[in-house]
Amino acid sequence: MTHQSRITQGRKFDQVRNGAAEIFLRDGFSGASVDDIARSARVSKATLYSYFPDKRLMFREVLRSTLDDAFKQLPFDPDQSGPASEALPIIMTGLAQWLMTEPRLHLHRVVIAEAARFPEDAQTYDRTMNDRIVAPLARLIEGWIALDEVRLHDAMTSARQMVAMLIGQLQHRALLDGADLAPDRADDTAAATASLFLAAYS
């Protein structure tokens, strides 16, 4: 998500962007009104337009900054030690809890909803998920393969499958149901995902 040159930095830039993020992540691009964004940011519409002369620029900047924040802290240690049977359930639990917290849940919803309108940003989101979550998990699996703890297979594929299972069972369900998911449900799903991998490859 490339930072746009037409965006103007200034004293209230973060205030305006944070206000816009609250509305865009709640209402999406089409549902967000400039009036609501200005109220959320506690600035006039004139001030809003002085920083972001175009709603699309504002939305893309919100996606960029939210994506940066969402992946700033990873859900598991990429240098995790210990046998797969002990480490993987911990990793999956951390990942499940990470997927269900803000701003990751609303970011996922907005990116999916606006993928046709902002395909480059959707692709950036997918690449970031792959680079920051799937690839480190695959490297851990490759380490277990090297130690003969799990049998030889395509580690990237199994890492991608485990992440997809958690997203499908947790994020998608939470977004479709519109209800908070009980923490125990996330933990149980994480444990089941780890068990399925270990049963298949141990």
From TrEMBL:
Q: Cite the SUPFAM superfamilies for this sequence.
A: Homeodomain-like, Tetracyclin repressor-like, C-terminal domain
Q: Where is the HTH tetR-type domain?
A: 10-70
**Superkingdom of this protein's organism:** Bacteria
Q: Which PROSITE patterns match?
A: HTH_TETR_1, HTH_TETR_2
Q: Which UniProt keywords apply?
A: DNA-binding
**Residues in the DNA-binding region annotation:** 33-52
Q: Per its UniProt record, what PANTHER family does this chain match? A: HTH-TYPE TRANSCRIPTIONAL DUAL REGULATOR CECR, HTH-TYPE TRANSCRIPTIONAL REGULATOR RUTR
Protein name (database record): TetR/AcrR family transcriptional regulator
Q: Which organism is it from?
A: Paracoccus nototheniae
